[in-house]
Amino acid sequence: MNHESLTALGERVAAVNDVLNAISCLTWDSRTMMPPGGAETRGRQIATLTGLARDLLLAPETEAALEAAERALESLSPEALAPDAPERRIVAQTRQAFAYHRRIPGHLVTERAALRTVAQAAWIDARARSDFPAFAPYLEKTVALARSYANAVGFTDHPYDAMVAVYEPGETAASLRRLFAGLRIGLRYILDQARARPAPRADFLVRDCAEAEQRVFGLAIAEAMGYDFARGRLDTTVHPFEVSFTRNDVRITTRYNRRYLPASIFGTAHETGHGLYEQGVDPAYTRTTLATDLVGLYAVGGTSFGAHESQSRLFENHVARSPTFWAVHFPGLQKAFPDALSDVTADEFYRAVTRVEPGFIRVEADELTYDFHIMLRVEIECALMDGSLSVSDLPEAWNAVLRRDLDLVVPDDAHGVLQDVHWSSGTIGSFASYTIGNVMAAQVMDALRGEDPSLDASLAAGAYAPLADKLRERIWQHGRRFSREELLVRTTGRGLDPEPYLAYLHGKYVG
Ligand code: ZN
Questions:
Q1: How far is Cα 51 from Cα 43, in angstroms, rounded to an integer?
Q2: Measured in angstroms, how far is the CA atom of residue 69 from the centroid of ligand 1?
Q3: Contact indicator for 147, 159 with CB cutoff of 8 Å
Q4: Ligand 1 centre and the CA of 312: distance in Å?
Q5: Is 138 a member of any domain?
Q6: Which of 73, 173, 351, 379 could anchor a disulfide with 158, C-beta 3.0 to 4.6 Å?
């Protein structure tokens, strides 16, 4: 529908989206091109622009446009305009974000931005020296600020609920506890059986592979998966990420390790999945609420962090970490690295990149142990937020859970509690999205296979367009119009369900 008030509201949100995209652009630059000396000023620039985006959203003009749009929609019956029509969703989501930011006092926003800059520098230094006490005072401030945020935003049961809602609307400490309880038992069972099997050969994974050829191979698989390089690019970074400045400029990054080929291959496949989601958003949603996270103040087309992660995991693990993928692509890989791979078969390569080996580092974890790292972090974040765990007791608590779950003895805090960037950047509540992404990816794949038995044949032939077409139709095109749970119900007939994920892991790692 066209209505003056919606146009006025649309213009206000478009301006917010523009500022948020400028922030994303500065962030992309800082992580790919910027010399280290620029870090401090860049932090200030981003804080200024974030404040500006928030001010634009909370301006009286936005509120007036919002109220006028609400009045215009109220007068329309559900028959004239469906309850889930884009217009209704735009207005409802803008109202929700408006109410959210209005509850948070401005001084908390400023304090958070200021803390982020110094905490990150302190964390980098503390991690290099494995010195948790040096980082602890910053983490204490971060937790205190997060609690103030939770109190300002409001929650019913647990202060963590207010934090996780930004990344995964609908999830709470209690809902995650339920999800994890079932997952933990299932994963434990599969992990024990998988570990009883003989370890595959993996010596060749650490042979020297030149970066330039790794890049060429990465570009080829991203293109084969359908990533559009006329609307995207692949750059080098330390911690791989994807960022979009509208669907027509979606950038992915990866890292290259000469002595560990899988890092760039699966990193690129992962970020390609994120990139495909953003490139697939309906063009009509560009610069609207449906391509802007107005609560998290982040320009993104994906509907939740978990939904986004489901698409990256799908391409990384279900597509690229499969025997049929390597039956198709291993000859090309072998040709690119004849010295490293001449005595290796496609099957040996697949087995090596799916070997199971519990380790200390989350980002290096295999598919069977990854979620234990997530559950540990969520358990600890909940305890920090409700005060049942103090920052000074954190390393001990961390190490105890890793021993309980994976039977590992953490050698030092750099390999333990200091490994992730998240807390130093003021982020609490985002970890659960990784596991939700794993669960959702398997659920979506299971449903798509069920409705189209020819899907596996096309994947085995190296044709990824049939899969991409389905994902675009069911998920990508909708941007933020539907919630993660709505997308799941529309695609699989039910809400988040760990059963297909456990069945997928069992089939892949136990057989
Ligand atoms: Zn990801």
A1: 12
A2: 35
A3: yes
A4: 6
A5: yes
A6: 173
- Of 46, 48, 47, nearest to 23 (Cα)? 46
**Residue 18 CB neighbour total at 10 angstroms:** 16
**Under DSSP, is residue 498 helix (H, G, I), strand (E, B) or coil?**
coil
Buried b / exposed e along 471-498 (16+ C-beta atoms within 10 A): bbebbbbbbbbbbbbebbeebbeeebbb
Write down the pLDDT at residue 2: 64
Ligand 1 centre distance from Cα of residue 434 (Å) = 7
Asked if residues 276 and 230 have their Cβ atoms less than 8 Å apart, the reply is no
Instruction: Please give the C-alpha separations between residue 40 and each of 106, 125, 141, 413, in angstroms, as whole numbers.
Output: 22, 15, 19, 26
**DSSP codes of every residue in 16-33:** HHHHHHHHHHHHHHHHHT
Residue with tokens 């529309």: 490
Please state whether beta strands 250-254 and 242-244 pair in parallel, antiparallel, or not at all (unpaired). antiparallel
Instruction: Name the active-site residue from 242, 271, 278, 367.
Output: 271
Measured in Å, residue 367 CA sits from the centre of ligand 1 at 14
Between the alpha carbon of residue 354 and those of residues 10, 37, 78, 199, 435, the distances in Å are 47, 39, 50, 10, 18
CB 46 within 8 A of CB 23: yes
Confirm if 480 and 292 have CB atoms less than 8 A apart.
Answer: yes
Range of the domain at 43: 4-142
136 in a domain, yes or no? Answer: yes
- From the number of C-beta atoms within 10 Å of its C-beta (0-12, 13-18, 19+), residue 133 rates as exposed
Q: Calculate how far, in angstroms, residue 176's C-alpha sits from the geometric centre of ligand 1.
A: 19
Specify the DSSP class assigned to residue 337. -
Could you confirm whether 316 is annotated as catalytic? no
Confidence (pTM): 0.97
The tens digit of pLDDT for each residue in 449-459 reads: 999 999 999 99
480, amino acid identity: R
Residue 405 lies in a domain: no
Number of domains in the chain: 1
Amino acid at 1: M
Residue 43's pLDDT band (boundaries 50, 70, 90)? confident
Q: How far apart are CA 486 and CA 484, in angstroms?
A: 5
Q: Is residue 266 part of a domain?
A: no
Single-letter residue type at 84: D
Residue 219 CA to residue 221 CA, distance in Å, equals 6
76, pLDDT greater than 80: yes
Q: Residues within 5 Å of ion ligand 1 by Cβ? A: 312
